[in-house]
Amino acid sequence: MNVLEVDLSALFVVAVILIWFMIAYQFVLTVFGYINYVRSIKEKILADESTIDFPSCTILIPAHNEEKVIGDTVQAMLALNYPREKLRVIIINDGSKDQTEEIVQRFADSDDRVILFNVPKGEGGKGKSRALNLAIPKVQSEIVAVYDADNTPDPNALRYLVTQLILHKELGAVIGKFRSINKNATLLNRFINIETLSFQSMLQAGRWQLHKVATLPGTNYVMWTHLLRSLNGWDEEALTEDSEMSIRLYEEGYKIKFIPYAITYEQEPQEWKVWLKQRLRWVRGNNYVISKFWKDLPKFESKRVAFDLLYTLSLYYVFFVAMIISDILFVVSAVGLVSMSLPGPYTIVWMMAFVLFIFEIILTISYDEEDTFKNIFVILLMYFSYCQLWIYLVLKASYIEFIKKEKHTWDKTVRFDVKKKVK
């Protein structure tokens, strides 16, 4: 039987160019992420020595059926190194049907900094943005901080965030770093840990150092209250309310700064089905933000900011196209269906891109002393398994969004008992 040979040289070149563009740009971000890491060490020392007069701050924590985690979260908030008389913690009980309300009420009864806000009946369970917006009228402080219900920040995290917001008037918000509290629980959690660390080192630290751009992460950040009110709060149609709010802050001329030394710890999904639901929400939320703002980005005064935001919003699809072309070419090449008529060491160039990709991730996770031999093996395995799942995620999200046109509904990430399950 004759082997059908198809000349896919042009497609191969497109794949190589696309992959190298991503790898090269992310290498630049990796370098600038390292510069940010070094400079942040000095900045943290100055922040520790600062004697500024801290303004009043209200922490907003949406909570929907969070009995497994909310107690530890409230305790962590009350342990924050922030002037007691200037701190309030509002727990937004968003239609919980478990013991969330009772647990929070016990804290409220013993500490006047804790305020239980029950979302009115019929208004609960409509998503994080809705819950946050309902609590805005309760805020009387100069600054608002947002944390998820599973977060346990370091004692100085809030202090560091507020310090930068006060010192730099061009900032509309300041964001910190999140770490996985269950990073070693499963292989999935090892993948997520590496992904989140490299993402923050490249696309938060690197972008801030290079372009003075970062995006809100959904937790562990602070904003000026007056600015939040002038923006009419969060977009309740956005499944990724953090990305949507980020664009509006830049439209208003403000900046968002990333500081890696303001750390909070959070749970990550331990089951693949939970992870898939969470990431589908992220991709669909990203689709919404793209559709809402893609016409506005070219109008930004700073073209560097516009390019960076557009690239970040399109990253799912750039990565999707690069991965799917690579996979197709790998398969058809393996079975002898491809003949390459191009001169030049294109295969070597392609393999060098893969090696550089691995090197970048190893470097970024080294900032947090995660560059172990075990994690290097996990990174290699991650490329051929975890990364490939993004093809399915983008296809599924596109089908739900554009074919079925399903309504945007909030799907809360499942929590677990930390004391029993974290390894």
Can you summarize this structure?
The chain has 423 residues and is an alpha/beta fold.
Structure description:
Helix 2 links the parallel strand 1 (57-63) and strand 2. The protein has helices at 9-49, 70-78, 100-110, 128-135, 157-167, 187-211, 225-230, 241-251, 272-293, 303-334, 346-366, 373-384, 389-403, 418-421, and strands spanning 57-63, 87-93, 114-118, 143-146, 152-153, 171-180, 221-224, 255-266. It is of the alpha/beta class. It is built from 14 helices and eight strands. It is 54% helix and 12% strand. Strands 3-2-1-4-7-6-8-5 form an eight-stranded mixed sheet, with helices on both faces. Helix 1 crosses helix 6 (187-211), helix 6 (187-211) crosses helix 12 and helix 9 crosses helix 13 (389-403).
Main beta sheet: strand number and arrangement?
A: 8 strands, mixed
Alpha-beta content class: alpha/beta
Q: Biggest sheet, strands in spatial order?
A: 3-2-1-4-7-6-8-5
Per DSSP E runs of 2 or more residues, the count of β-strands stands at: 8
Provide the CATH topology of the domain at 52-200 and 214-270: Spore Coat Polysaccharide Biosynthesis Protein SpsA, Chain A
Shape: globular
CA distance, first residue to last residue: 55 Å
Q: For the record, what CATH class of the domain at 52-200 and 214-270 applies?
A: Alpha Beta
CATH superfamily of the domain at 52-200 and 214-270: Spore Coat Polysaccharide Biosynthesis Protein SpsA, Chain A
What value does the Rg take, in angstroms? 23 Å
CATH architecture level-2 label of the domain at 52-200 and 214-270: Alpha-Beta Complex
Estimate percent helicity.
40-55%
